[in-house]
Design a protein that fits this description.
Elements (H helix, E strand, L loop, with lengths): L2 H13 L1 E2 L7 H7 L4 E4 L7 H18 L3 E7 H11 L9 H5 L13 H14 L9 E6 L3 H13 L4 H13 L6 H10 L5 H11 L11 H24 L3 H23 L5 E4 L2 H4 L15 H9 L3 E16 L6 E6 L7 H6 L6 E4 L6 H4 L2 E4 L14 E4 L1 H4 L2 E8 L13
Parallel strand pairs: 2-5, 2-6, 3-4, 3-5, 6-11
Antiparallel strand pairs: 1-8, 6-7, 8-11, 9-10
Helix pairs in contact: 3-6, 7-8, 7-11, 8-10, 9-11, 10-11, 11-12
């Protein structure tokens, strides 16, 4: 081992305490519970333990600390169906699996899984009998739902009629020639000047803040119309940008998540506090990684820059196990082996320490964990275990997160719909 790795290992050993699940993580819940925004990450979108522990921590923050809603790395329309389900709306289905059928676009397993279903059922029971304004919500703040959000806006405004509906129809007609093909739209907007930005901005202006004057039973539906319009605006910008700029399209996406989160905070009032679920690459401060060198920002960085100590970021990691992912975008899901972490990485160093599962509260971390980057594994929805070396993000751990949970061996997520035989 190199000198810096030895120093980091010794610092990790002094900091780490046993992690025996969220039920016993009082110190973590108390520290996180003082924040306005608690960001809870994951090192993959397909690891069961990340989902389970994130849900258990969220339950405690909701019950003990009064957090008002969860905002996730998911699309607004499908998540809003789940939001209706957890708030007891019969139109969303009688069991969580009914609502989760709305997650029909790849990667379906990311939200349509048994771990999310169990949490949704818990949240429905928690909300039962509470006043509407006291129910805890579940919302998606991502931007991939270009066409679905347009459909939802037209459906909502079709029941209202008037100038807002005409603005929505103009925006929809602008997109219609592209046949619901995002890349086709991006190419047309970039190279042929056939973009729909003006129509989308006009639509968003029409729908913005309508929830403030809506009657009580329609307030959240009016909010949904605005957030769908925001998603259309974000998606238009994203698909137009991604044709030319990988880094900037990433920034468009994370800035959109912040804009959606800000609107949700405004809707829930000045005392609102939120929990954000997203991949580590979104919740951990980008300035503490090599993302900064690429000109990339993320949710964790942007929130810290605006809200400072009101943000508490929790990361996750694992040494080895199994994970749900695909071998290419749109390819069938597989339960893949996660090989032992690369030597010298954060996960490899933590694996050397007892006990197996650990919690690190990083407020008291030594300087070596703030200055010396360690490779930190990040697995996406597309994964090739045989090319593992490229999955590590150089990370100054104590600058990236406020706390870190390490689970030595982990298992694959449990999708509700099996798209392919597990291998």
């Amino acid at each position: 081992m190199r000198k810096k790795e030895i120093e980091a290992l010794e610092a990790l050993e002094r900091l780490a305490v046993p992690y025996q699940g969220a039920v016993q993580a009082d110190a973590l819940v108390d520290r996180a519970g003082e924040a306005t925004f608690v960001l809870i990450g994951e090192a993959s979108h397909g690891t069961s333990e990340f989902y389970v522990e994130r849900a258990e921590l969220s339950k405690r923050l909701i019950m003990e600390k009064g957090f008002k809603f969860i905002a996730v790395e998911g699309d607004w329309p499908s998540c809003f169906v789940l939001n209706r389900y957890v708030k007891g709306d019969a139109s969303a289905g009688s069991i969580a699996a009914d609502a989760l059928r709305e997650f029909a676009r790849w990667p379906t397993w990311m939200w349509a899984n048994r771990e999310i279903a169990a949490f949704a059922d818990w949240l429905r029971v928690y909300n039962d009998g509470r006043a509407e304004e006291d129910k805890v919500g579940f919302y998606g703040v991502d931007l991939y739902s270009l066409w679905e959000s347009m459909d939802e806006i037209l459906k909502y405004l079709g029941e209202k009629d008037g100038a807002d509906l005409e603005a929505a129809k103009r925006a929809f007609e602008c997109f219609e020639p592209h046949g619901r093909e995002e890349q086709q739209y991006g190419i047309a907007a970039n190279f042929y000047g056939e973009g729909c930005e003006a129509e989308v901005v006009a639509l968003l202006r029409k729908l913005q803040d309508k929830w403030k004057t809506a009657r009580s039973g329609d307030r959240e539906d009016a909010l949904a119309a605005e957030l769908n319009a925001l998603a259309v605006k974000g998606a238009e910008d994203y698909y137009r940008t991604m044709i030319r700029h990988d880094a900037e399209s990433w920034n468009v996406r994370d800035r959109h998540m912040i804009a959606a989160l800000e609107r949700l905070m405004a809707y829930h009032g000045p005392a609102a506090r939120s929990i954000v679920w997203a991949h580590n690459t979104h919740v951990g401060d980008a300035r503490a990684t090599d993302m900064a060198e690429e000109g990339m920002v993320n949710v964790g960085q942007l929130l810290r820059e605006t809200h400072g100590a009101e943000v508490y970021a929790i990361g996750f990691g694992t040494y080895e196990g199994r994970v749900i992912a695909g071998r290419g975008w749109g390819r069938p899901l597989e339960a893949m082996k996660v090989p032992p972490a690369q030597p010298g990485s954060l996960e490899a160093l933590l694996h050397r320490l007892e006990p197996a599962d650990k919690l690190l509260l990083l407020g008291d971390a030594e300087q070596v964990l703030r200055e010396s980057p360690l490779g930190h594994r990040a697995i996406g929805v597309v994964y090739h275990p045989e090319y593992e070396r490229g999955n590590y993000v150089p990370t100054a751990l104590a600058e990236r997160y406020d706390a870190f949970i390490f689970l030595d061996r982990t298992t694959a997520l449990s999708p509700l719909a099996v798209e392919a035989a597990f291998s």
